[in-house]
Amino acid sequence: MTTITIYHNPACGTSRNTLALIRHSGVEPEVVEYLKTPPSKQRLQALVREMGIPVRALLREKGTPYAELQLSDPKWSDEELVDFMLAHPILINRPIVVTPLGTKLCRPSEAVLEILPSPKLAPFTKEDGERVVDDGVRRA
Known about the structure:
The chain has 140 residues and is α+β, with helices and mostly antiparallel strands.
């Protein structure tokens, strides 16, 4: 059985669509509601490394204390930004998905297709009615 983990916010449409796409692939993932159970500092740092993105790329601005905390200021180190995300988990952009093919911030939700360890999926319809057609391309 393939293990897939999604760091999920059920209030987020992109996160719900990503979870639905994973389930559409025939896998029931481990769902981590990161607002209730944030990752440890070490785990969050590992996720950033695995995704190969800058820490700032994981920061969410909309609907968060990003502006209030002045997180756009370049004075903040990566470690300080991670600490802010742990103190305010809503700052962590979502959803983050971990599969045997890699770790990815799945925005838009169909970005998860690249790391799903499954054959090409049948077409899928998102909550808003948008149709997603899987091209079958996966990471090696």
